[in-house]
């Protein structure tokens, strides 16, 4: 497999996930506004984590859609000028991202369980709504990062095969 082909496949997956995240956020905003009664304190508590999740989905989804396609052009230019350095740079970046995703998944799971436990500990409807909302946020972040990490592992494996051993 050619390095540009591997990069293109990875970027297409990232862009698709960005589109899904962006579309899901739009759909959830309308659903939340239609079904939620913000007069109740439980839903008021859920509103802040929900808003944070929507900013996360819209922002990161928008980033994936707008910035990732430029990555193909950058890699193609680097491959044209110096293929070995370009492959090494991509491999190093992918390995660093792999480590970050591995750590983030642990953080999301621990935060999810902490928020879920707080739901049962707290007595106020407002704080229960907030803890449940953050549990949902952390679960969504875990799922999103798991898909991104899985796709990155595939790309990383392709880069390892393509990168010559010095």
Write the layout of secondary structure elements.
Layout: H1 3-35, H2 41-81, H3 83-121, H4 125-162
Helix pairs in contact: 1-2, 1-4, 2-3, 2-4, 3-4
Binned, the helix content reads: over 70%
Which segments are poorly predicted (pLDDT under 50) over 5 or more consecutive residues?
none
Computed Rg = 20 Å
What value does the average pLDDT take? 92
Can you give a write-up of this model?
The protein is built from four helices and no strands. The protein has 166 residues and is an all-alpha fold.
Quick structural summary:
The chain is 91% helix and 0% strand. It is an all-alpha fold and 166 residues long.
Keywords:
166 residues, mainly alpha, 4 helices
